[in-house]
Amino acid sequence: MRVLIAFLLGLAGSLAFGWWGFPQLLYQREPQPLQYNHKIHIEKGSMECSSCHEVAADGQFAGIPRTASCGACHAEPLGKTEAEKILVTSYVAPERELDWKVYSRQPMNVRFSHAVHVNKAAMKCEECHGGRGSATAAEPFYRNRVTGESRNVWGPRMIRVGLKPGEGMKMSDCESCHEQKGVSAGCLGCHR
Amino acid sequence: MAIGRRELLGLAGGAAVGGALSPVPWKLLDDSAIWTQNWSWTPTPVRGPVTEKFGLCTLCAAGCGVKARCGSAGVFGVAPAAEHATGGGALCPVVYGAHQLPYHPRRLRTAIVNGHAVETKEAIAEVARRLEAAGAKAAILDERPGRIVSALYDRIARAKGGTVVTLAQVEDRSLRTMEDLAGMGPGTLGYDFEHAALILSVGAPLLDSWGSTGRMSRLWSRRVETGKPVFVHAGSHWSRTAQLADRALILRPGSEAALVAALAGKLAIEPAAEITGLSPASLSDLALRLREQAPALVVGGGEAASSGLPEATERMIAALNVAIGALGRAGGIVMRRPLTGAPQPPQYLDRVPDHSLDLLVHEASSAGIVAPEALLRRKLAAKGTLVRLSAFLPEAFGPNDVLIPSTTFLEGAEDARGARDAAVETWSYSDGLSSVPASALPPAEFAAQLAEALQVKVESYEELRKARAAAIVAAKRGHVYRHAGGERAEATDLEKFEAAMAEGAVWVDEPVEPGPLRAKIDAVDWSAGRPEQPSLIAVASSPRGSLSVLPAVPLASKLDRETRLYAVPGEVRMNPRTARELNLRPGDSVLVSTPFGETRGRVRCDAAAIPGQLELGACGDGSQLVLEAMGAAEPGAGPTQAAQIRRS
Ligand code: SF4
């Protein structure tokens, strides 16, 4: 009996550590340089994702906009929020780049063509990036201490079931979408 | 409650089962796999937009157009510029990896004088001092004459009483003999292969590492549609050109003269067949075709990694060309207009008397051109100085030498005059696509600093480049081809011309209307000896652009080593049958000796190698020894050498 209790104690402790303590240890929360409001840009500024996240004509993705492109509208503060003030005084005016933490950044052996997915496959940004485009504030960025990448690549929960669009950007997620759509990219389509 | 060993084991067992049912093991497994891809020291390209720019390949004088993929950290991919006048939309295999050359472990990062590292300025001051002292016994070796920097070398050498010399590349060897006989200056003749019906190569590797790869491969593939030109190769060993040619005649080594004499009708077919080892029927058939399948032309020259044919044989080839009407005819050997604004063509280094120079400044900024070390040293007097402007540490280094680090592939401003064998002159330039390392001097900067140290007044590189552009526009000849838009435009407006050239365009001169040219062939000696037949011959192979002291860049070494296309450095490639006859096994360490030198290597057996032939790889470390053994420093020593081999 005492052995069984010890076994169950070990089992419970280990499960608790694995499912609760381990994620706390694995991920480190890091602040974004600015509380960015996507929603206000879309609703009030009538902007689209591609207004800032350009997909270049030759197929390459320009990615995170540079401060100069923010400066096109924010040369002067457009509101009274703290974030607006920081943007103009600390970044736009001194022409300093914002050190955004990228939720979807992949390891170096991965290449991804936004142009193919957006222009050819006519996919919506939300299908991979979820509702980030309508968020009022930048969601917390959790960096995986081992890989250095965002928690969003794996997904919000340790168990990868029931992921919604925008949750998870692992190879298996790409594969399942490709399988659903009957598209094969081969190894070199995505890996270099 | 007392805790005993059993409880502890139970606890551990529970923890182990719980651990296995938790995400820890598989998540850590997954994460550590990704971690291995993100080690801080793993080279990763800097993120940023990717642009395509046009530049020049500087691995030989042809200056083929290169389309480079550039990121924020420099060039990371190279492809041919389609339709380029010289490159023709193709590059030599080695060039596809040449953007890695700037990171080569043998990159020279400091100037060296007499074995000591010094500041570049000091080294240049030392070169100026020795050049001044050498006076008329100084020469500058310009491997790619006709560039803007060549004009600077010309002014410096003239101001101090010295000369500019150049190397006779494999494409030069036959043309210069013809120029001599026709009383024309160096660089005034070219081959009009595009209009030829039959091309006979006498030992010239026309279809492998000869001329510009794009031009030759375009000609070869065009045969499928038009049936012209027909390539006939007559050589003393099997080579890739022999394999690709429409017809290959394998001669006895050294019997090229007999073949040419027979084709010219100066030696009867029967004795010629006996000397060359060819059948009388094939000889008479070829002689007939040369006359009937007009326009035909004959190219000699030998292999790049060995010596050319003897001068007497080259003279016979020139005379044969005259006899079949190839000189001055479309589809033959045609006149080219001298490049507008270019300095006088330099004389050939192999024609400079031995031991006559106190100082030789060797501009070796093109990593792909070979200069046989033995040839350079032989031209120098006992205590002469060899100055090298090179991006890489050379294989050999003399106690008196001066080394100055230079730029390499796609670094810094460069211009190219185009392939030596082309029927028309071309010109293109680039300001460089990769940043210039602080320690490296582009050739133009080297020349400018040398001129300053010598107090020779010269125009700046930019002024000279502008002046040449203006002269070309003023001449109102030729056209400009822009890769970016794939358009041809006339060169009539200087501003537009310069704008297009800055984007990587190429200017192509107009061809000279073919017309009869004369050459003095009466004095040509047609006597053809009966060469001795060695049981074993050595041949050297090397892919174009990699014929240097450089260990091949990664992509090229992959091509070399994995496809086994070429004998790789340090290997002696032979047919298994030859190895058995010589009692050798794969991997045996051997010493190959020829009348000119020795080289070591390991035996590699390859059924694709020709029996009785030892193939030596002349690229990378040890290539200078191979060149020496092949007699590359001895003009006219021939493309193959009698060889002996023994275990070492
Ligand atoms: S090595 Fe010469 S022929 Fe080959 S691509 Fe470069 S310039 Fe052209």
Layout of helices and strands:
The complex is a heterodimer of chains A (192) and B (648).
Chain A: H1 2-26, E1 27-30, H2 38-43, H3 49-52, H4 67-71, H5 82-92, H6 114-120, H7 126-129, E2 141-144, H8 151-154, H9 171-181, H10 186-190
Antiparallel strand pairs in A: 1-2
Chain B: H1 5-20, H2 24-35, E1 51-56, E2 65-71, E3 74-80, E4 111-113, E5 116-118, H3 120-134, E6 138-142, H4 148-159, E7 163-166, H5 172-182, E8 189-191, E9 198-202, H6 213-226, E10 230-235, H7 240-244, E11 247-250, H8 256-263, H9 269-276, H10 280-292, E12 296-299, H11 311-323, E13 333-335, E14 347-348, E15 357-364, H12 373-379, E16 380-390, E17 402-405, E18 414-416, E19 426-430, H13 443-453, H14 461-475, E20 479-482, E21 487-490, H15 494-502, E22 506-508, E23 537-541, H16 554-563, E24 571-574, H17 576-581, E25 589-594, E26 597-605, E27 613-617, H18 623-629, E28 641-642, E29 644-647
Parallel strand pairs in B: 6-7, 6-15, 7-14, 9-10, 9-12, 10-11, 15-16, 16-17, 23-27, 24-26
Antiparallel strand pairs in B: 1-2, 2-3, 4-5, 4-17, 8-13, 18-19, 19-22, 20-21, 20-22, 23-28, 24-27, 25-26, 25-29
Helix pairs in contact in B: 3-13, 4-13, 4-14, 5-11, 8-9, 8-11
The complex binds iron/sulfur cluster.
